């Protein structure tokens, strides 16, 4: 692995803590859904963290979607970056939250919390999902309505969208959390599609507690973890 030099083109602030960093320079080969480590030199040390690509592989400008974790060493610095600033990008993208690992199915469910939306935006900007799945459902769960980001991009895609806003009432979004809505049928009702092992592939990304609880709810519905040697329907990526 080597470090490549990137330059910030833009740092869009959606809220006080949410940002999208557009970076030019590094030329990387990756598959939509993968991540790469990005780094800054802080106090003489290179501090690196994995970030999922938001951009599709064919886009020469890299895009990352992040949240400031105030006590974290890197994310507060990323939030502060401005156009022209330097950022290091690792040369070796990686990750298994990719469609090439998934069996075909009728419905592709993409379940995310917070910044876990990022890899699904990359996937949705490729043509592969529409070639392989009859229906695609994008689910994004956030605490507050203002965190429902990238709505314009998502509206341009032929994807059913279900949002959750958990800490305030928001018309058009479901209340509460994804696992409860899998169990009580509200998620399927909102999407107009069934979650079932014979018709669904489910990718999940974001908060590890959501991943654990949602997987348990999916297992109760007869789905199981997807493995190369033992195909199933559930593929996850934890952000921490
Ligand atoms: C495979 C992978 C892909 C990732 N992709 C992204 C991405 O696209 N966007 C992104 O913002 N982060 C992503 N992360 C998390 C990211 O690598 C950092 O952990 C995060 O930016 C915080 O960095 P930090 O150094 O400030 O704090 P850290 O020391 O890394 O984290 C401190 C704590 O912050 C919380 N935390 C970390 N990341 C998040 C998050 N994304 N949302 C809410 N709470 C969090 C956790 O409680 C964690 O223990 C990814 C992580 C992994 C493993
Ligand atoms: N979002 C903010 O307003 C904010 C502000 C300042 C700093 N931060 C930083 O960002 C971090 C959190 O990031 P985030 O807001 O993206 O967070 P998050 O805590 O992952 O919440 C995102 C969504 O996931 C849901 N969720 C949490 N645990 C779940 C579970 N077990 N099962 C199903 N759903 C679950 C949350 O519901 P619940 O609401 O029910 O938990 C919320 O709807 C904090 O640790 C903090 O450092 C966030």
Structural account:
The structure is a single chain. This protein has 240 residues and is of the alpha/beta class. The chain is 20% helix and 32% strand. It contains seven helices and eleven strands. The protein has a six-stranded antiparallel beta sheet with strand order 4-3-6-1-2-5. Strand 3 and strand 4 form a beta hairpin. The two termini are 22 Å apart. 37% of the residues are buried. The model has no long low-confidence stretch (mean pLDDT 98). Flavin-adenine dinucleotide binds next to strand 4 and strand 5.
List keywords for this structure.
single chain, 240 residues, alpha/beta, five-stranded parallel β-sheet, 11 strands, 20% helix, globular, binds flavin-adenine dinucleotide, binds NADP nicotinamide-adenine-dinucleotide phosphate
Shape: globular
Biggest sheet, in brief? 6 strands, antiparallel
Q: Which class do the helix and strand fractions yield?
A: alpha/beta
Give the strand line-up of the largest sheet.
4-3-6-1-2-5
Order of helices and strands: EEEEEHEEHHEHEHHEHE
Helix coverage percent of residues? 10-25%
End-to-end separation in angstroms reads: 22 Å
Strand and helix map with partners:
Layout: E1 3-13, E2 18-24, E3 35-42, E4 45-52, E5 62-67, H1 75-80, E6 86-90, E7 107-113, H2 118-124, H3 128-132, E8 135-142, H4 151-155, E9 160-165, H5 178-183, H6 186-191, E10 200-206, H7 208-220, E11 234-238
Parallel strand pairs: 7-8, 7-10, 8-9, 10-11
Antiparallel strand pairs: 1-2, 1-6, 2-5, 3-4, 3-6
The structure holds flavin-adenine dinucleotide and NADP nicotinamide-adenine-dinucleotide phosphate.
Flavin-adenine dinucleotide is lined by residues 35, 49-52, 64-67, 69, 72-75, 95, 114-115, 118, 237, 239-240.
């Amino acid at each position: 692995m080597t470090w490549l030099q990137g330059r910030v083109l833009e740092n869009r602030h959606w809220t006080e803590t949410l940002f999208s960093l557009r970076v030019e320079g590094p030329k990387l080969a990756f598959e939509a859904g993968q991540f790469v480590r990005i780094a800054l030199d802080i106090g003489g040390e290179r501090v690196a963290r994995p970030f999922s690509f938001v951009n599709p592989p064919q886009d020469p400008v890299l895009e990352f979607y992040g949240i400031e974790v105030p006590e974290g060493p890197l994310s507060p610095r990323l939030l502060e970056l401005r156009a022209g600033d330097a950022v290091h990008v690792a040369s070796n993208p990686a990750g298994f939250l990719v469609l090439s690992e998934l069996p075909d199915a009728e419905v592709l469910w993409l379940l995310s919390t917070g910044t876990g939306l990022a890899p699904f935006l990359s996937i949705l900007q490729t043509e592969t999902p529409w070639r392989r799945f009859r229906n695609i459902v994008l689910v994004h769960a956030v605490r507050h309505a203002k965190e429902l980001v990238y709505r314009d991009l998502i509206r341009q895609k032929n994807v059913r969208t279900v949002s959750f806003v958990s800490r305030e009432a928001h018309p058009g979004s479901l209340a509460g959390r994804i696992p409860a809505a899998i169990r009580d049928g509200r998620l399927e009702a909102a999407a107009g599609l069934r979650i079932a092992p014979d018709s669904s592939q489910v990718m999940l990304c974001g908060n590890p507690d959501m991943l654990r609880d949602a997987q348990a709810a999916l297992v109760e519905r007869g789905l199981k973890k997807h493995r190369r040697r033992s195909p199933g329907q559930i593929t996850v990526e934890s952000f921490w």
